[in-house]
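Sorry, any thoughts here?
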Amino acid sequence: MSPGMAQPAASLSEAQAFVRIETGEEEALLAAMVRSASAICEAFLNQVLVARDFSVDLPASGDWTRLPLTPVKSITGVAAISTDGSSSAVMSTGYAVDIDAHGDGWIKLHAGTGTTRVAVSGRAGMAEDCNGVPEPIRHGILRLAAHLFASRDDDGGQPPAAVTALWRPYRRMRLT
């Protein structure tokens, strides 16, 4: 699966103000903490925060198969993956796609496609840019980035409970 790298859902200048540091040597470290906190947030929420393109490799099926990331904004293509790893576009008559009201993307191959794996491409994300991400999520990312920055030499530090309290209302659980 290649859903792309998590894009920071908070800016470096916001993080600098939050941890009260000016520009300098620690700027790059703080930027890395914001990226890490954003990735941790996406994993916790089971949602893509800032919209980005994706391509996911799935088993081909005649049944509806849910894409492994959400919220899906668009599904732009389906390609058959051969055993040697090469791919070729599947004609739009060879599959059906759907995006439900919850933002889950679905694909179903029609009979006769003759493939065992497909690559589905599209775009997913909660917001088009970091300013569109809900403020409680952004605040939790800033708090976690500040925690990671402050406790970078402490292996046993637990993240603040306030972070998960801010994120929990947006968490999407999946039952498999």
In short: The helical segments are 12-19, 27-45, 135-150, 161-167. The chain has four helices and seven strands. Residues 70 and 104 are 6 Å apart (CA to CA). The mean pLDDT is 88.
